[in-house]
Amino acid sequence: MAAQGGGGAEGDSGGAGGRALPPHSPSCAVLQTVEMHTGGEPLRIIPRLEAAERAAAAGLSLLSLRREVAARHDHVRRALLHEPRGHAGMYGAVVVRGGAAADGADLAALFLHGAGYSAMCGHAVMALGRFALDYGLVPVPARPEAAVRLRCPCGPVTAFVPWDGRRSGNPVRFHSVPAFAAATDLAVDVPGHGKVVVDIGYGGTFYAFLSAEQLGLDVCSSKTRDLVSAASAVTEAVKKQFKLHHPESEDLAFLYGTILTDGKDAFSEEPTTNICVFADEQVDRSPTGSGVTARIALQHHKGLIQLEQSRTFRSSTTGSLFTGKAVKEAKFGNYNAVIVEVSGEAFYTGTATFTVEEEDPLKHGFFLK
Fold first, then answer.
1. Nearest by Cα to 2 from 347, 353, 350, 348
2. Measured between alpha carbons, how far is 197 from 210 in angstroms, rounded to an integer?
3. With helix as H, strand as E and coil as C, how does 248-266 read?
4. Phi and psi (nearest 5°) for 29?
5. pLDDT, tens digit, for every residue of 7-41?
6. pTM, whole model, 2 decimals?
7. Measured distance CA(148)–CA(131) in Å, rounded
8. What are phi and psi of 248, to 5 degrees?
């Protein structure tokens, strides 16, 4: 259980002085997590949050559940992702089983970051695909590759995970929700940088894309701090100068961040490098699964890549690689869209049990900028 009362735990055997857990307040939750990373981007999985499951059982949709958790249980996100238990780059996922939220899927997920809640996260989907198999959330996994059906706030996503009957493996791939080009060659005035031209793509969430060169930077060699500042300025400028629309829900019509690239959008066998800056200046350590999805959709829209042409995407922060390709054309509202397959490697790094003392003034975390 990921979030439970801690009243009886101190009598358990083991640990220093016979304690399984350090002293903590019985009225506060004990938070158990599974720790993973995909391409270097961390994922702190909360396998079960009872408050979320109760709300889902009452009939809340996943988008409504996201609002409910943000309004009434945001202390869990802050406690686990912010310091002292987390850090500025920490990412998390709450697993939800059953109820309307899962809607026939093997599991649903809420995605957490330093500033709030996302609609889609590709690196998390790949990690959760492995987690679902290894923790028995898929009743009868197929061999040698099992399908894991996930319900994300943006819609249904399917992960395909190697399975040998005992444990999951890599690489993991997933098929996205319909992805599309929301705008291309959009002129935006960015304070401190002048006019730049951006594309906006949707891959479960919206991103602005442009080459770092337009900002006088090199995505491979410039200081990360300079790339982050420039990308954040672009995000704020686009938010002010362009209104997004989502075909199904205005809850999803928000710009999640900006992805700076090396400008190599035409098809090539060579990797193309990017850095994703999302939420409140958070930096993705991976190539960004939903970002790869959106970038493939843009390249397909522009005729730069054809169906089943696979491209490799490199993170400028860690050098980790994802691959992506458009596998099927689709219609999404008025948009011509594609289903994108993204592949990468997810790994376990451990488990953790977090406790809280009621008298701790920083018990729900703090955040440094």
1. 353
2. 7
3. CCHHHCCEEEEEEECCCCC
4. -70, 145
5. 333 334 444 556 788 888 887 888 999 999 999 99
6. 0.94
7. 10
8. -110, -35
